Amino acid sequence: MWFKNMQAYRLPKNWEMDVGQLEERLASFTLQPCNATDAQSLGWVAPRDGGPLVHSVNRQWLIGLGTEKKLLPSSVVKHFANERAKEIAETEGRRVGRKEMRDLREAITLELLPRAFTHRRTTYGWIDPINGWLVIDASARAKAEEFIEHLHKSVDGLPVRLVNVNQSPSAAMTGWLADGDAPAGFTLDQDLELRSAEDAKVRYVKHTLEGEEIPKHIAEGKVVTRVALTWNDKVSFQLDEKMQIKRLAFLDILKEQADEQAENDDERFDIDFTLMTGEVAHLLDDLMQALGGEREDQA
């Protein structure tokens, strides 16, 4: 269980809810199959087949939000609606107007949904009740917000919020690149994106960031919006201006530890999860420090 992306949110440290209480609340909002006319269904699923809704290892919790979605491409709906419009034009001798065409597409959608294939996916969230983190494995903020919204629905008064730091990620990253030096514990890798005030973008992919070229861009007024980093020679990732962590990769030394310790799939899953959460908790602490610390009124 290795996350590929991280959207980090804050919970109170030593959050008082226990595993049993969370399990009970999630159980009221489990994933149900789509009805004939439903385009999508959301609900909690067990992270491990046949397991509980809250998978707990060493006081670290893993939960999964399942999504079942009907696969009905808009091009298919458009095709059937156009065919229906042609029939109306031929039989009634009139042209279908814009509003009627919208109504036709809605009607066709309802007709086709019962026959559409369904696709399931799971978005995972890690809850660290000791250190006060909720981390969602999602590359887009919208997916993370969908997860948070359903969690709010399931857990009344959920005390979760966005992380607030003293220095914006963009300002901090721009400073690192201007100085040519990453903060303690981190190294700069070879992917970078800068943006000008006019929204023009400059991207570097697998390109050395040393030399005078990057400081020149910054001197001209461009700011860094994304940079690739490695933390403690263990975890590489890309950090962006919204403090989203993407392309998260746990380097071989960690995965080799899991291989050496695991005797079966269940053990491997738990060891992976334990190693991931332990390292990421330290990574997040160091990242908060690199961004000037969390705001005192929010920490």
Explain what this protein looks like in three dimensions.
By secondary structure, this protein is an alpha+beta fold. The chain folds into 3 domains: 7-66 and 122-162, TATA-Binding Protein (2-Layer Sandwich), CATH 3.30.310; 74-114, no CATH class; 169-290, no CATH class. The protein has helices at residues 19-26, 74-92, 98-112, 141-154, 169-179, 213-219, 252-261, 265-290; strands at residues 7-10, 40-45, 55-57, 60-71, 117-128, 133-136, 161-162, 186-195, 201-204, 223-231, 235-240, 245-250. Strands 1, 2, 3, 4, 5, 6 and 7 form a 7-stranded antiparallel β-sheet that branches. The protein has a 5-stranded antiparallel β-sheet with strand order 9-8-10-11-12. It starts with 6 loop residues before the first strand and ends in a 9-residue tail after the last helix. The mean pLDDT is 90.
What is shown here, in short?
By secondary structure, the protein is of the alpha+beta class. It has helices spanning 19-26, 74-92, 98-112, 141-154, 169-179, 213-219, 252-261, 265-290, and strands spanning 7-10, 40-45, 55-57, 60-71, 117-128, 133-136, 161-162, 186-195, 201-204, 223-231, 235-240, 245-250. It is globular, with a radius of gyration of 24 Å.
What key attributes describe this structure?
3 domains, alpha+beta, 12 strands, 5-stranded antiparallel sheet
Q: What order do the helices and strands come in, and which of them pair?
A:
Elements: E1 7-10, H1 19-26, E2 40-45, E3 55-57, E4 60-71, H2 74-92, H3 98-112, E5 117-128, E6 133-136, H4 141-154, E7 161-162, H5 169-179, E8 186-195, E9 201-204, H6 213-219, E10 223-231, E11 235-240, E12 245-250, H7 252-261, H8 265-290
Antiparallel strand pairs: 1-6, 1-7, 2-4, 3-4, 4-5, 5-6, 8-9, 8-10, 10-11, 11-12
